[in-house]
Amino acid sequence: MDHSLMSVRGLRAGLASAVLVLGAAGAVQAQTAEQAINYRKGVMQVQAWHFGPLVQMVKNARPFDAALVARNAAVLESTGRMVVEGFTPGSDAGNTRALPAIWKDAAGFKAAADRFTGDAAKLVAVARSGDEKATRAQIAEVARHCGSCHDNFRAK
Ligand code: HEC
Q: Which of 32, 35, 44, 115, when mutated, tests ligand 1's pocket best, judged by the most ligand atoms within 8 Å of its CB?
């Protein structure tokens, strides 16, 4: 059989099943403000889950583990890139603590997210280098970004 024909058939079958899966996940429907709010809170919950053990290490409430820092910081680097996406137009109202400043100063909010993502990426590299002191300092640096973004863009 002709190989190019075979791969076209394979591609068609793959696309057909991908469309089925997307349909089941509701992705073919419009994304509502409520979904956006749930999405960004989910992103934040993931961040809190992966950052918690690192904060415990800095507080000496848990043994230092460079491999775990590198792994969790890599998650934060990814979620950092997801943050802005969850703040869609019109999702300022609802069950949310997001402040209007996020939409009024969209560039400032994005810059805060980018700083966080950049320092999470740096944390991955520092943790992999095996320098414990520098890793601890960089964890504190990332924590500062969580705090300052919440101060500026999240209601108390
Ligand atoms: C660029 C800004 C920004 C950064 C950086 C950021 N957050 Fe947030 N975070 C927010 C905003 C805005 C909300 C409010 C979301 C809402 O209520 O819609 C929030 C909400 C949360 C929540 C509550 C989620 C919920 O279920 O209501 C937690 C927990 C959280 N953040 C943890 C963290 C941690 C931990 C970090 C750092 C590792 C972090 N955030 C970094 C902006 C940020």
A: 44
